[in-house]
Amino acid sequence: MADFGGARVARTTAIVLLVTGLALLTVLMADVFLLIFGAILIATLVRSAAIPFLRMGLPDSLSVLLGLAAVIVALLLAGWLFGATLGAQFAIVAGRLPGAAEQARAWIGQYPLMAPLLSTTPDVQAIMGQAMSVAFGAVGALTNLVLVFIAAVYLALQPQLYARGIELLFPKKEGPRVHDALVTSGLAMRRYLLAQFVTMTAVGLVVGIGLAILGVPSAAALGLIVGLANFIPLIGPFIGAVPGVLIAFAVDAQTGLWAALVYFIAQQLEGNVLTPLVQRYAVSIPPAVLLFSLAALGGLFGVIGVVLAAPLAVVVYTLTYTLWVRNALGHEVPPLTLGPAKS
To answer: CA-to-CA distance for 247 and 264, rounded, in angstroms?
Structure first.
């Protein structure tokens, strides 16, 4: 009996030490885990591009390679068709932003009631300097980007192999549940990325067309900026709107106010029409969860953490709901649904 009690104490101690060691390892290797998730994200995009080829009945590996080729060709074609024009427009935006910010500050200074806004008007030159620092850091991280891309290709070609490896880390009887949770989380991330792509495209087009009608310079580049910024939920739309509103104010105050209205209409369309529609096919994450995810990963990893926060929150939310809330704790909650479409 004493031996049995001693064995149980030793087992409990070993488990505590293992969990503590894993927690410390997670902190020390946080950057590596972020790179791994980046590879998973890219692999999900590649697998999504392979779906049409899979539905044609082509082999899995061939479909993935064709999907990857389709993505690369699409990017190269877009760069060939629009790269020069957008590059020129981005150069114009970068050149006009500092002067546009000063003009906006001068206009705000004419109205005493709006004077407090001067203290919150962004220092565009400082922001541009930080952006350049990030850009040079990205150049320095080229090796990591290549590593992530190669790992993503391997993950996309053989997702079952790596999913099986994760299953083997759990007791045999839990294998089917873990497998189902991994499949569900992968589908959730794919649906989330598709939903984001739809809303990003719609917002970018609405803003670009609206600013072009108003005569704001570089409307296409500004539409692309706000579209890309919309990938970051909650705060992305505001970040993406700053350059367009400032450049519109550089034209005149009336154009600036109309431009602000264009951004407002685009975000209302996204928040009240598009998002409710696309969330029928994607996991809906509570806004507070997304906000804290942005704050936590942004504080730990800076810009890259903010960019990856939302899809990572989708995966963690799905796994927690499926494995912990339903299976481990046994709560009577409905299964996590991802809409009527099949994948």
So the answer is: 16
